[in-house]
Structures are given as structure tokens and as C-alpha cells.
Amino acid sequence: MQDIDPNTNQQRPAANAALGAHSSRFGVRDHSVRDGENDASYVALGHASIDRDHRHLLSLVARFASLAIDRAPADALAEAVCDLTEFTRSHFEYEEALMTSAGFPDADAHRMDHAALMQQLSLYLFQFSTAVEASPTEIVESLQGWFTGHLKRFDTPMVQFLLAPGRSGGSSSADDASVPADHQAIADPPIE
After folding, report:
1. Which tens digits make up the pLDDT trace of 25-82?
2. Sign, Cα dihedral of 44, 50, 56, 62
3. C-alpha angle 148/46/111, rounded to 5°?
4. 167: which DSSP letter?
5. Yes or no: is domain 2-186 CATH 1.10.1040.10?
């Protein structure tokens, strides 16, 4: 199945179509940090779509931190956590589809780490939505710590596996890896 990339007007494989829908759904393609020009602290893993998503995730954490510094009301903080949660869920679905498609051997542990963060994000959202005492500073530190540890322990080996010579995703544009059809769930519904 082929699709047209709106940025290049060229055909792309189905896996890239799923990524394109994922990226455009959350505005990643149009986000100012997508190429890393505004985030020198992020070290690219070498997988274009995963790196773009990671930069966007960091920008969402930075947005939350900025709101916290400005002492934004709880509803604004809740909205920022909600946006972070939605994008994180979509990104995790994408990574998990790549792992399944490629037969990544550490996929179960990787998924469990994803589930742990999703549970934590749900707790943060609950705290801000119900005016339960929450420390935005501790949340930012927790998210940054999780992200750093997850990149080192899980994402780096996964990307190395995906980019290994002889794999279907064996180039820096590993977006071409075959992604199962059920991953299309991240796509936006067609515009009528």
C-alpha cells in the first residue's frame, strides 16, 4: 500500500503513511524542534521518526515546565499533561508496532516501561484535574529522569536493532520498516 507524503509529494510505504498520520495528528512535522535546532541536549538515536518524536516529547515537557514556572492555573497544567499523555501514547504505539514488526527481543520489557510511564502520566493528570496537591517541579524532574533512563536502557538498543545491517529498517530512514495494519489506529479519520 502506498501513500503520498505531503511534504515531498512522493509515494511512501504503508509504515511511513502511519508515521505521517501520527506526526501530523500531533503537529510534529510543523514543530520548531523537529530537527533539533532548539534542543541541544537531545542526542539523536539515528532513527528519523523516533528522534523527531523524542524531540517533540521533550518540547511538551518543556511546555509543562514553562507553565509551572509561570504558576499557571491547574487547568492549564492539566491540559499540558493531557497533550503530553496523548502524544506519548501515540508514540509508544508506534514504537511498539516497530518492535513487533522487527521481532525485537526485548519488546516485552520495553512495553512494560512504557506502561509504567503511562500510569504515572495518568496519575499526574488526575492530580491536576482534581486539584490534588501536585508538585510541577517534581513532575518535570521525574519525566526528565524517566526519559533519560528509558532512552539509555530501552530506545538505544531498540534503534540499534532496527538499524542493524540486513534488517528492513537498516538505514537512518528506518521509517520504512513494516508496521502492522492495526497500527493505523493512530491515523486521523479521513476528512470528509
Report:
1. 443 333 333 333 355 568 899 999 999 999 999 999 999 999 999 989 888 988 999 9
2. negative
3. 50
4. S
5. no
